[in-house]
Structures are given as structure tokens and as C-alpha cells.
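Researcher: We're teaching a course module on how sequence relates to structure. For the next exercise, students receive a sequence and then see the predicted structure as C-alpha cells, so they can try to spot secondary structure elements on their own. Here is the exercise chain.
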Amino acid sequence: MLQISIIIVNYKVKDLLDKTLFSLFEFNKNINLDVIVVDNDSNDGSEDMVHSKYPQVRYIESGENLGFAKANNIAYKLAKYDHILLLNPDTEFIESDSLKKIIEIFDSRENIGAIACKLLNSDSTLQPSCRKLPTLSSQIFVLLKLHNFFPRLILAIRKYYMLDFDYNSEKKVDQVMGAFLLTHKKVIEQVGGLLDEDYWLLFEEVDLCTRIRKHGLDIIFTPITSIKHHKGESFKQEKILKNQRTFNNSLLVYFKKHKSKLRVLILRFFMFLNWFIVRLVVLFAKLHILPKKKKYL
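Model: And here is the predicted structure for the students to work with:
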């Protein structure tokens, strides 16, 4: 029987975590599951819920918010099986044997490093989950917020977000969203570890995908199965500054690690401009000028 270790990092989403775990066990019965939940100090009753409803799950209470990368790495060291799935606590399985199908594809390929399935929004519409790796030009447009207004007119943005990508066929891609990312211990050891703890939040999976690609391994997107990812549709305007700071810090770490010093210097200049733009966004939000459901990160 196939077997897999599943790593879930939880932070204050008890009800969504409950839905994730229920669907995980309900739709994946023909496979041995080693499920590890690392809680980043939620204090929302998640621990009691898991212990009472899912005693087969190993629940690790960190005692503090360790960040996404470090929490995943803690669970990885405890994983029993070779196949490793990074799974968000706001996902929901909706089809039988999703994991079995994904693992069978992974094991049938000789040069594969990671694989991901199709993601759907809560209303079952497609959730774009594949992108090109970040370039200086694409991230400059992102920092200037132009991707919110002219995504299809800017070639660098159109390529980065893969706006013309066909999610109905299996393809090799540069990166996949970390909400559902399956890999293998041999791949993780080959590329130098699971997630880089220099990232607090954001770009950890981008970094992992970059390392996988640099080692000549393929990242596969497959529509053979789908899961729901209950990602928030609205963007809380009062958190714009905090989220932008997190995004910028992680983007800078990525560029320092994978790009030239000149590109890092240019990126810093546009990050400086970005803070003026973000403060204008916050001001306009307070004046109710901006659409509430628009994401301005």
C-alpha cells in the first residue's frame, strides 16, 4: 500500500483545519497516512479539537509562532514516510483517492522533483496556482502595483502570473503554490533541505521550487485531481502595511539568494518607492476609494 507523510502548519484556523483533516481521511482511505500538524501558538482550541476527533494525527504545539518554514521543517524531521506533502490547513479534499493518483504520477517519472494538483476556490471556480519564477522586471511591476490594473497589458506580469496557462492539461512548470505540494525525501536531501528558515512567511515554496529546478528536476502540474483551497477572497485593508512588509522582506531574501547584487540593489530602490505607493493605498482605503474586494499586495 502507498504511504505518505503530510505536513500541515496551523495558525488560528481551527474550523478550517477540522474540514481539512476530515476530508483528508474521508477521501484517501486506500493509503497509509502519517499526518503531522504543527501549531504556531494558535490558542484557539485547535489542539483539543484534533486530539478528540483525530487521535491518529500527531499534533505538535510549538509554544510560539515559529513562522511557516521552521514549523514545516520540524514536522519534516519527524516524517515516517518518503513521500512528503506540504498541505495548507485551509484546503479540502473533494475527490476519492487524490493522493494515490498524485503519488502514482510522481513515482512513474524519473526526473520529477515535485508535483501539484489543480486548486479550486470555495465556489469551485479555478484558483490559479502556477507561476514563472520571479524576475526583476516582473517584481518591479508588482511593487509598483501595476499588476492590479493592467495585468494582461504588461508582458512581464502576463508571463509571471501565467495568465494564459491551460489548467486542464498536465505540464512542466516553474513553481506551484505551496497549498498542495508533493515531493520526496530524496529530492529534499538533494536540493539542500525542505524550506529555508530565512523566510518567515511567503516565498518559501518559491525558493524550494527554484532549488528543484536548479538541480535539473521537473515540477509538474496535473489536473488529474482537484482540491479546494479556501483562500480568503477579500483583503483586510488594515493589514496592508504588515502584509507588504512581509512580502518585501521575503522577496528581498529570495533575490539575495538567487539573483545578482545589481538586481538586489535595483530591487531595493523600487521597494523604497513601494512604501510611498502602499501608504497611498492605505489612505485611499480609509477614504473608501478602493474596491473592498481588491487585493493590493
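Model: If you want an answer key for the exercise: The first strand starts at residue 3 and ends at 10. The radius of gyration is 19 Å.
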